[in-house]
Amino acid sequence: MTTDKLLWNVKEACFQLGIGRTTLMAMTYKGIVPSLLIGRRRMYSAQAVREWIDSKKATKTEGGQR
């Protein structure tokens, strides 16, 4: 049985997004990529990140070239 994880840690989020840790953390601290803290761990909701990506796709197609 395969289940999708609800939350990704930093390493998993980097892998899923295809970006490096430094880039992800910079985008996180600027509030670009949604994340949450659980204790001292930075976590990323798989659903929230997918919705964020979808919103970027919609903005790009609606606004023409960026």
Which parts are unreliable, with pLDDT below 50 for 5 consecutive residues or more? none
Beta strand %? 15-25%
How would you classify the helix and strand content by structural class? alpha+beta
Alpha carbon gap, first and last residue: 41 Å
Share in helix: 40-55%
| H-E string | EHHEEH
Mind explaining what this structure looks like?
The protein is of the alpha+beta class and 66 residues long. The protein has a single domain, classed as Arc Repressor Mutant, subunit A. It has three helices and three strands, in the order E-H-H-E-E-H. Strands 1-3-2 form a three-stranded antiparallel β-sheet. A hairpin with a 2-residue loop joins strand 2 and strand 3. The radius of gyration is 13 Å and the shape is globular.
